[in-house]
Amino acid sequence: GQQVMQIPQYQHVQEGEDFTTYCNSSTTLSNIQWYKQRPGGHPVFLIQLVKSGEVKKQKRLTFQFGEAKKNSSLHITATQTTDVGTYFCAGDQTGANNLFFGTGTRLTVIP
Amino acid sequence: NAGVTQTPKFRILKIGQSMTLQCTQDMNHNYMYWYRQDPGMGLKLIYYSVGAGITDKGEVPNGYNVSRSTTEDFPLRLELAAPSQTSVYFCASSPGLAGGGRELFFGEGSRLTVL
User: Which among A78, B1, B67, B85 is placed 20 to 30 Å from A69, CA to CA?
Assistant: First the structure.
């Protein structure tokens, strides 16, 4: 079955440092979504990438979809304490009724 | 601004008990989902529904049942609770197929402990 792996599992950074999480799928994805879950909260949609090689930016966050549509990354520039949480990627194959979520990367930002 | 509402937020069950987690959405979304989240893991799909009267199994359906009699409601039933069902349960809805260009809107979660 389809698997979506995410690394690293945990990341501690000093405030102001950059952060990157990587998402890899065992199969080609039709699109990929990213979600953020604050501690004790629920996942909240951040963005969706659809095209091969697509890059999207949201302020300090940069999202990338690989050329082969099997991997993706989220990069945060100059982290802030408000960035704390777990970041999940979620992808699916064409026609699937389900998003396969990665295991998530828990980000801790040290002030 | 209700969105997706789940009840209860917390529940402790004894082994063998049954219960229903309630989920209601007011966004008129056709698609609804139940996920479970275990510590250090991503979300696993239990069941989903593409509209009233239509449900289907996800990745981890064993031990659970669902029904979808209305567009708004998608309750999850746990029969004969087991410790392995200790988890945080999230209900979500989507205007279309999840991943098909349609984001998921999640409820706040229900933390279930089975002792």
Answer: A78
